[in-house]
Amino acid sequence: MAVLATLNSDDAATFSRAFLSSSDGTVAVSIAESSSRNEIVLLELNLETLSEFLAPLCIDPLDEIAIMDETGRFIAHTDIVFVHEQRYETRFPLKEEATSLFTEHGVLWYASSEAIPGTPWRVAYYRNATKAFAVLPSMLGLVGLVTFACLGISAVIGVRLWRQTTVIFKSYIQHVGAVADGRYDLKVPSTYQEFRALSTSIETMAAAVANRETELRKTVAERESLLKEVHHRVKNNLQIVVSLLNLELNMLTDPETASAFGISIDRIRSMGLIHETLYSQDRLDSIELNEYTRRLVNELTKAYGTCRVVLKKNDEQILVSLNQAMPCGLILNELITNALKYAVSGRSDAEVIVELRTSGDSIIVSVTDDGPGLKPGFVPEESKGLGLQLIRTLAEQLGGTASFEARPDKTGLHASLTFHADSSIIKPETTPA
């Protein structure tokens, strides 16, 4: 019997070389493995019996199965002679996993080798490739014939089904599309039984959407009505504040104090016009700047004199968000008020031009007068006056810029405000002429 090395409890099984068994003289191999109690379990495997076990596993009688040890020597084979003579595998590369084609005695063989987990052995299968490949032409011909026949039958059936179902599917899709477009009361036909559950689900969802849409429209209408009422009340409250300040103004005797009161009244009036414009228009998320400026010009013209104020409006709607409306309105009020009070005061032939236009995604508001212009050495950007400070602060709040420059053609002042339009505002769709 082969000698085995001493094993520890952590060692894996140890396999001996093949030897002649002392009990019956057959070829055998010993396997030793340590147990959990540090005992060595020794087994003897009869290789001839293992070879007999391999024979029924062959796919074809001409095929062969063999087991080899780590040196490539056969320890089991469907032909026991390979074991008795202790032959070695030399016909294809000795690797843990290998495949190879080789010819032996005029026969083409296909061999495949794979390691046996937990052992140093490998199993190899030898397939008679000459015989195996010989049946391929006839098998491929039969398979091809059956395949073409199936394809032909499938094509005929497919064409007929396609023609029959196309009309039904088109009609079904049209009905579903009509429901999606808002015809929630439309019944979806169920030509096929498989469509009945889907049709029922679509009709149920359509009814739920219709009810929900009705509720949402009602909620939106109530919300818009409440918002308009809020803006109306705010406008009325601001109007009351203006009336109270006018009463106080009539009792003042100091010209500077009266002027300050008048300027404050104008600013409050410009704020009230925003709420008045919101109350009178359809949308509540933004202000139409053309309409607001028209109302502001009318109010200030009534308050400050008889000069001619020209409003040049953009052909398209200029919408500013509610966050932009208040600072923009106050800046407009300051620019127009300054022109009416200081540039054209007391002149019936004076002219103030208020212009609104867009350039890309920017909104440009300008006020031009034909008055004496800026005093020599006066820098608006450095002025400490409340009005100009207010203009600069509000322009920064808008993320824009305010500029003051002389008119190029004659005396006068051209003041402008440039800021970006709010991209979140959804512009109304325009109908082509």
CATH T-level topology of one domain: Heat Shock Protein 90
Instruction: Supply the number of helical segments.
Output: 9
- In which range does the helix fraction lie? 40-55%
CATH architectural group of one domain: 2-Layer Sandwich
Cα distance spanning the termini: 108 Å
Q: Which CATH first-tier class of one domain would you pick?
A: Alpha Beta
Provide the low-confidence segments as ranges: 1-10
Q: Give the overall shape.
A: elongated
Q: What is the H/E string? A: EEEEHEEHEEEHHHHEHEEHEEHEE
The SS-based structural class is alpha+beta
Number of strands: 16
Compute the CA-based radius of gyration. 50 Å
Mean pLDDT: 79
- Give the strand content: 15-25%
Which sequence of strands runs across the widest sheet? 6-5-9-8-7
Largest sheet: 5 strands, antiparallel
CATH homology superfamily name of one domain = Histidine kinase-like ATPase, C-terminal domain
Explain this structure to me?
- The protein starts with 13 loop residues before the first strand and ends in a 13-residue tail after the last strand.
- Helix content is 45%, strand content 21%.
- By secondary structure, the protein is an alpha+beta fold.
- Among the domains are: 121 residues, PAS domain (Beta-Lactamase, 2-Layer Sandwich); 148 residues, 2-Layer Sandwich (Heat Shock Protein 90), CATH 3.30.565.
- The strands form 4 sheets. It has a 5-stranded antiparallel sheet with strand order 6-5-9-8-7. Strands 11-13-14-16-15 form a 5-stranded mixed sheet, covered by helices on one side. Strands 1, 2, 3 and 4 form a 4-stranded antiparallel sheet that branches.
- The chain contains 9 helices and 16 strands.
